[in-house]
User: Fold Lipoprotein from Goodfellowiella coeruleoviolacea.
Amino acid sequence: MTTTRARMTPILLAAVCLAGVAGCSQEQAASHARAHQHHVGQTGTATATAGAAALGQSFGSLPELWKWVQDSTGECADARPASRQELADYLGPTRISWYDPYVAEWAVCGVAPYDRLGLVLFKPDQQRALEEFWKRGVDSGELQDNSDWAFGNGFAVTAGPLGVEELGLHYLWCEPVDDPQAHRIPADVAGCDFAMPQHEH
Assistant:
């Protein structure tokens, strides 16, 4: 599989920007500082050291989730609940079979560069079931790569890079990734990790 590219952490980028390095705008500095702030806020409330519970706060409703995304990004003003059929259309026939059994409800909104970012709440206890599905799929060869979603505690966003870099969420790695610098939290399922790759220039 393709190794996930390492990247520099948002706080380091923010520090470099704030130090006045040429080519880094105030807007970029604010964005990276905001990303780090919300990463700290997302993980700082966690008392668990493993599993989804270690990823921080959870959300009891879609409006709570999209309000957090709005506060974190300054975007997503057009957030709205979306239907099951929209989820199927959004993911396509193969990917919907991977995710649909575990999704309670979802919403969409625009967060640059995505016109439609998916915000997903999992059914109770079904985030672990998704991890189990992914681990089985990787082990059997049915799934060739890791999920491209970014995960929090009981929820996910469908654009992994944005979720990880801007919201402080984590990828689910059940297929081994050669990235010794990545921040890893053991997932609920043995052999899988929640991972945040480090950032690079």
Q: What stands out?
A: The chain has one domain: 10-196. The mean pLDDT is 83. Residues 70 and 121 are 16 Å apart (CA to CA).
